[in-house]
Amino acid sequence: MELLSDCPVHASVPDKYVLPPEKRPSLLNDEPSSDVAIPVIDLHSADDCRRQLVAAEIIKASKGFGIFQVVNHGVAEDVVQGFREAAAGFFAMPAEDKLPYRSDDLSKHFRVSSSTPYDRNGDRYWLDYLKINCHPVTDEHVREWPDKPGSFRSSLAEYSTAVHELAQTLLRLIAEGLGLDGGFFAGDLSGGSTQMNVNYYPPCPDPSLTLGLLPHCDRHLLTVLSQGDVAGLQARHGGRWLLVRPVPGAFVVNLGHQMEIITNGLLASVEHRAVTNTDAVRLSVVTLIMPKMECRIGPAPEMVNEATGPAKFKEFEFSEFIKAYSAAAASREDVLHYFRIHR
């Protein structure tokens, strides 16, 4: 298995990365700069009397976009940059140092691989990635994390703990904004082992021919993303792809399939993809908050009302959803069709 980060700079896109014409991206800036922008929410004021207003802003952004950015979120910049630098250092290591961690074994707590397993046609995407079980930080997890670069383990532990706390704050605000108890999403709904994807997109000689990551919705509850200062994330909005422009110090937050199902469709999961560029490495750090595998999920009784209508989804065990998501090759409509109640 060849990693893109092991190879010299390509003068052209190798054939195996060239997507069929119908899957290739349009121009990166396909939304006018004066048009729609992803909402940016200041979380600092959530600590005072404006908490209800902040919660309402989050719900409005979630309904309108399924994605938003947060600033003044409480995660220190040196914590964010410390892990981003360690992760970049891992990809920059010689191929032989990464070789012991190359694997497609899903049971591993740390592994590095390339492209994505979620395309049923075997198309390849322009990225390498780390898959990490990162929270709670246990000795079992840490033993499988690499000891090079030297700061990797300590910076990952610090970053994952801080981002997990931020995610719990966001879930409390979402619950309050929906009129639910603040602890509604605590426990089994968000108590699964937190996963992290670190996606590495090297410069691409022709971004019009390939994608960094295929269009998909996240299978989990909530995603918290550090995308750095290099653009590349696009979200589906109003039938078009909207570029999520980097905001200094911000985290991007998007809703997953489980949030859509639990809220009976009120808050929809957002389809998103990654495009490439010719000039710079792009590194994104994606933290995925998920239910426990045995958790029973369905529309919350409080969310089946006049506003949302009758229950739109059947109840299931989260482990069942994971299998269906893989079988549907991450297709938003295919996986939701399986769990939707058809009347």
Topology, pairings included?
Elements: E1 40-42, H1 51-64, E2 67-71, H2 77-92, H3 95-98, E3 110-114, E4 128-135, H4 139-144, H5 152-177, E5 194-201, E6 213-216, E7 222-226, E8 233-237, E9 240-243, E10 251-255, H6 257-262, E11 272-274, E12 282-289, E13 296-297, E14 316-317, H7 318-327, H8 332-339
Parallel strand pairs: 1-2
Antiparallel strand pairs: 2-10, 3-4, 4-5, 5-12, 6-11, 7-10, 7-12, 8-9, 8-11, 13-14
Helix pairs in contact: 1-5, 2-5, 7-8
Structure description:
- Its cofactor is Fe cation.
- GO terms for molecular function: metal ion binding; oxidoreductase activity.
- Residues 192-291 form the Fe2OG dioxygenase domain.
- Keywords: Iron, Metal-binding, Oxidoreductase.
- Belongs to the iron/ascorbate-dependent oxidoreductase family.
- With 343 residues, the protein is an alpha+beta fold.
- The protein has one domain: Jelly Rolls (Sandwich).
- It has helices at 51-64, 77-92, 95-98, 139-144, 152-177, 257-262, 318-327, 332-339; strands at residues 40-42, 67-71, 110-114, 128-135, 194-201, 213-216, 222-226, 233-237, 240-243, 251-255, 272-274, 282-289, 296-297, 316-317.
- It has an eight-stranded mixed β-sheet with strand order 1-2-10-7-12-5-4-3. It has a four-stranded antiparallel β-sheet with strand order 6-11-8-9, with no helix packed on it.
- Helix 1 links the parallel strand 1 (40-42) and strand 2 (67-71).
- Helix 1 packs across helix 5 (152-177), helix 2 packs across helix 5 and helix 7 (318-327) crosses helix 8.
- The longest helix has 26 residues, at 152-177.
- The chain starts with 39 loop residues before the first strand and ends with a helix.
- Mean pLDDT is 91; it is low at 27-34.
